[in-house]
Structures are given as structure tokens and as C-alpha cells.
Amino acid sequence: MNPFSRIILDWYSENERDLPWRRTRNPYAVWLSEIILQQTRIAQGTAYWHRFMERFPTVKDLAEASEDEVLRIWEGLGYYSRARNLHAAARQIVEMGGFPNTLEGIKALKGVGDYTAAAIGSICFGLPAAVVDGNVYRVLARHFGISTPVGTTEAKKEFTALADKLLPPDEPARFNQGMMDFGALQCTPQNPSCLTCPLQPSCHAFRTGRVNLLPVKKPAVKVQERRFSYIYVRFNGETAIRRRGPGDIWQGLYEPLVTSPTAEDNYFSCSSPKNQFPSAIAKPTLIRSGVKHQLTHRTILADFYLWEPENRPELPEGYFWIKETELDRYAKPRLFELLLEAL
């Protein structure tokens, strides 16, 4: 066995994180954890994993649920395409008659890529497939002195080939989990514990003083800015919402009346989100202005308004009335939650 791999396995034996989905080899439970933990910290994701396992104890239960219910339970995790893919994949699995046990079969599931397939395959079925995520990129880049920018096609090929070479074929699950934990606990992005690191004697980055320079990241994607206003309408204990359509942020989630200068949200055809509303909306009350909400590649700047009309207004196409007490039944983006908190 490669000395690097032996060190990782020995370190893992003493430092393994106690995570609930590691107490089982149930592919449904492991798959669920992997999807939730994409773009989500373990501390936050664990509560959602328990929530899903309690509400949907089997993949069949998840497949039979409505998309609205899945999105509602997912609410607050963001990246809602993960929830929609999770739901679609559950239905695929039921149609297959069970969870696939090959890498090709696992990768055929909606929303499952190389990393997730390798994690599920190695942990649940003992398949010799190495995982390559941010933690693995960092550990390998520092130890072996790899300067290829992560996030590029070249890096994926190079790091995957190296990880596969280091993977002990008889212990793929422990090695993969060891690499993830080593990157999360020992070889951290900031202030790694180099002085107590068992790989320090052979680490290229430590030897050359490049720990803070590796891994090399490709240039960040430019963040776009969008502006719009949310208008919470209240009439006789009811409010108006609509479900966002495909092709934009927050697909499938529900929101209040919205006015925006952008094509995606311009339901009222008004030229500015500030202080200019259709004549039907007379004197809405400004609740909060300039609310900033950060997404991965977008910065949302929003104003919140309350409109309490004297007569029941006609709603724009796509909107419908619900009782205010029923709002919790609908999955909402965080920005809508911020409006409700402000109210």
C-alpha cells in the first residue's frame, strides 16, 4: 500500500467523525446525506437529513411525495434544484425496483455526478472508486504540489487519476471517508494543523512554504446584481402568492407580488422597483429597503412593501389567494422569509 494511503487510513482510525449516515450502509440514507451536503455545512445538513429520514424513511416514501412537500421540507437549504433532482431520482429508483449498485447505474440518477456516485458506490457497495471533492483537491494539491487550477477539466482528470491510484481497492470506503475527514479537520482551508500533521514530512506545500497558495483556484465567476421589490398584499386575512416557473432562480418556490425592472420578474411592467407601482396598487407601505440577499452568482437587492387594499384586488396572472395562516404549507425562498420576519 502507498505510504500516503496508509497514513490516511491510520489517521482516520483515530479521528473519524461520528455522523449518523455513517452508521448504516443503506444506500438511500447515504445518498440523501450526499445530496444534502452539497453546498451545505454538516452542522446544518444533519438536521435536514434527520428531517427527511423521519418524514420519508424509505425511497418509496420520498418518491410518492409531492414536489411541493419535498421543497417545503428542503426550505432554507438553498440550491433548490438539489431537492427537485432528489425527488426525481427517488422516482427513478422506485421504477428500477431498487437502488442501483454499479457506478454507471448510480450516475444515471438525476443530480448524481462522479463524486456522489463514487461516495455511494464505495461506502455502500465496496466499489473501488475514489471521491474527489474540495477536501480531496486541497489535500492532494498541497501534499503533491499540484498547481493545476481546481474547477477545470484538466484538474478533474489529474486529481481523479491520482486519487484512483492512491485508493486501496480493499478499503475504498474508509479511504474515501478518511480523505474527506482529513481535509475537513486536519488540512483545512485556513490555518491547517501542519505541526501535528502525519503527512508533514512528505508534504510539498509545507516544505516549500506554499500551504496558503495551494490549491490554485480558477478565476471566480462575476456576480450579477438584480433588484426587485416584494409586495405583501393583505386582505381579509388572505394574501396573494404565485409559484415561480422554470428557467430562473427559486424554481418551484412561492413568492408574493413582485415588481422588477428585469424581464424575469416584470409582472407589473413598471420601470423601477422603487416607488413606482401600477395604479392598482395605491400607496403601499415601505417595510424595509435595500435588503441584500447573496446567492452564489447573484446579489439580490430588494425592497419590502405591505399593501392593504380596501377592496379585493384582481391579481396578475399566475397569482392566487391563500389564508395567511396557511403560508407555512408553501416552500418559500429565504428572501420571502425575510419579508415575513420584517412584517
What would you say this structure looks like, in words?
The protein is an alpha+beta fold. It is built from 13 helices and 7 strands. It has helices at residues 3-15, 27-36, 42-55, 59-64, 67-74, 81-96, 103-107, 114-125, 134-144, 153-166, 172-185, 204-208, 334-342, and strands spanning 224-233, 238-243, 254-255, 257-259, 285-294, 298-307, 319-323. A hairpin with a 3-residue loop joins β5 (285-294) and β6 (298-307). α1 (3-15) packs across α11 and α9 packs across α11 (172-185). It starts with a helix and ends with a helix.
How many H/I helices? 13
Number of strands: 7
Strand arrangement across the biggest beta sheet: 4-1-6-5
| Radius of gyration based on Cα positions | 24 Å
Q: What share of the residues does DSSP label as strand, in percent?
A: 5-15%
Note the overall shape: globular
From the N-terminal CA to the C-terminal CA, the straight-line distance is: 61 Å
Low-confidence stretches: 266-277
Helix content: 25-40%
Structural class: alpha+beta
**Mean of all residue-level pLDDT scores:** 92
Order of helical and strand elements: HHHHHHHHHHHHEEEEEEEH
The main pleated sheet reads as:
4 strands, mixed
